[in-house]
Amino acid sequence: MSADTVYDCIVIGAGVQGSFTAYHLAKKNKKTLLLEQFVLPHSRGSSHGQTRVIRKAYDQEFYAHMLDECYKLWAQIEKEAGVRLYRQTGLLVMGPENSRYYELVKNTLQKNKVPMVALTRENFSKHIPLVNLDEGHGAVVEIPAGILYADRAVKTAQGQFQKLGGVIRDNAMVTDIKPGPLVTVVTSSGVYRAKSLVITAGPWTNRLLAHTGLELPLEVEKINVCYWKEKVPGSYNIKNRFPCFIQTECQDTKEHIYGLPSNEYPGLMKVCFHAGFETDPDHRDKQKNTSDIDILQRYIARCFPGLDPQPAVVESCLYTLTPDRNFVLDHHPAYSNIVIGAGFSGHGFKFGPIIGKLLSELSLGEVPSYDLSPFKIRRFHEKTKSAL
Ligand SMILES: Cc1cc2nc3c(=O)[nH]c(=O)nc-3n(C[C@H](O)[C@H](O)[C@H](O)COP(=O)(O)OP(=O)(O)OC[C@H]3O[C@@H](n4cnc5c(N)ncnc54)[C@H](O)[C@@H]3O)c2cc1C
Ligand SMILES: O=C(O)[C@@H]1CCCC=N1
């Protein structure tokens, strides 16, 4: 492409959401440029690591609805690229039987006819050995849920995008955005122009939006990603059909604790706390709070007796949280040819292919395939006004 190429669209940020957005735009024959500040692949944002959970067990039904198409889109890109990105493991959901949240999750699964098994206290340990169910808690297994191979998925979306003629420039940090009928994007390695711009910059979103006079209520948190050693290797292994799990709340915390079967590191199971500690994305290593690990240790000692209750490996990742934990998928309030995909609040990976499709639709001025009202920017202002 020559220096004065005008792209149909520039996408800023090559995490899962930007990579799938670029891929969908290229599928629609749009001349698309994907910009990334770091050399790819990297582990400084939110999309790195080997695995993520895919599930329909949500308290809000609109997520379960989007997941129907999402599973199809994951299968489609697997077929196109000839790679495996999803593996069914099932998802064990445990929570207090009298809690509203646990009830809503079960309702979503039932109403959407998701194949599931309700476990009783009597048959729980037969089906799920080496897990202790807390007193007063119920358990259901969402059968089709599973894991996504995260790093491989991001690489696949980028690879398919390039095969369709898309251009990726990594090591290209965006330092300025000049809105207009043609948007100008200034990077550390060149200046680019496009008819539309999609910002999928994860934890750095507000830094980029500052160039456009907008600030969203986003909080960036560092998550301690903990791996725990199996006392007997293989006891919680994916090959032995151990499922992913979510503990919706327990005596130590109202937050989710979740885990994935041992798979990525031999003999280690990933179990994490679904909340972290506020950080600056460029200085997350300075955030050293580990009080979440204390909670995990107590939980593991009580409920996962087959794991050593000392983390064997601790890595880090970033969440970008909105106040209501729903995503932002919207046009910029002042510039309709700038589209924002942000605030994926620690649960956005599974939606990558559908987010990409929706952001591509918004950037092309098409009617989005889903009702995007839960994801609109104006909900933040409405909240502020009604609080006054
Ligand atoms: C520990 C952990 C576990 C999770 N588990 C799950 C799960 O099980 N299931 C699930 O569905 N989701 C899960 N998530 C959430 C999911 O991973 C995120 O929602 C998703 O990765 C967000 O992707 P993103 O593309 O918005 O952000 P990112 O991956 O951070 O991508 C943004 C990109 O923009 C780039 N960028 C930023 N600023 C600039 C700039 N100025 N110029 C150029 N490029 C720039 C960044 O370098 C980055 O590559 C988890 C997240 C974490 C951290
Ligand atoms: O989104 C997911 O499925 C995971 C597991 C539960 C907590 C957050 N991420």
TrEMBL record:
Claim: Oxidoreductase is one of the keywords in the record: yes
Keyword match Lipid metabolism: no
One Pfam family hit: DAO
InterPro entries reported for this sequence: FAD-dep_OxRdtase, FAD/NAD-bd_sf, MTOX
Any GO MF annotation of the entry: flavin adenine dinucleotide binding
This protein's UniProt keywords: FAD, Flavoprotein, Oxidoreductase
GO CC annotations, alphabetized: peroxisome
Cofactors: FAD
Gene3D superfamilies associated with the record: D-Amino Acid Oxidase, subunit A, domain 2 (3.30.9.10), FAD/NAD(P)-binding domain (3.50.50.60)
Limits of the FAD dependent oxidoreductase domain: 8-362
Catalytic activity field: L-pipecolate + O2 = L-1-piperideine-6-carboxylate + H2O2 + H(+); sarcosine + O2 + H2O = formaldehyde + glycine + H2O2
EC number: 1.5.3.1, 1.5.3.7
Biological-process GO terms, alphabetical: L-lysine catabolic process to acetyl-CoA via L-pipecolate
PANTHER family: PEROXISOMAL SARCOSINE OXIDASE
Function, as annotated: Metabolizes sarcosine, L-pipecolic acid and L-proline.
Similarity section: Belongs to the MSOX/MTOX family.
The protein's name: Peroxisomal sarcosine oxidase
Naturally occurring in which organism (per UniProt): Xyrichtys novacula (Pearly razorfish)
